[in-house]
Specification:
Elements lengths: L6 H12 L7 H16 L14 H10 L7 E4 L5 E4 L10
Antiparallel strand pairs: 1-2
Length: 95
């Protein structure tokens, strides 16, 4: 039995294809947090007020939790395409 494509099915397909880019892998998370901590240690301005610590790694984690993380994630796919993603709008792993 073959189903006809309706507008609802097409919208559903688009939604399921975009859910691939919702999660950050643990490798991407560690890389982003490490880069941000290095930037903070080198004097980059922080995006949270009164972090309560001077440790760059903790400040980067606080920025992530407050959704003010200033870096972007660029993913490269096997077909050669690249996609720039906002880590603040993604699901982070528990590290």
């Amino acid at each position: 039995m073959i189903k006809k494509l309706t507008p609802f099915n097409i919208i559903y397909i688009k939604i399921t294809m975009s859910t691939i880019d919702v999660r950050i892998t643990k490798y991407e998370a560690v890389s982003l947090l490490g880069r941000r901590a290095r930037d903070i240690a080198e004097g980059s301005p922080i995006t949270v007020k009164n972090p309560g610590t001077d440790d760059p790694h903790l400040i980067a984690e606080i920025e992530r939790k407050n959704h003010t993380f200033p870096l972007k994630l660029i993913r490269e796919y096997p077909d050669g395409s690249k996609k720039t993603l906002n880590p603040n709008m993604m699901i982070w792993p528990i590290i």
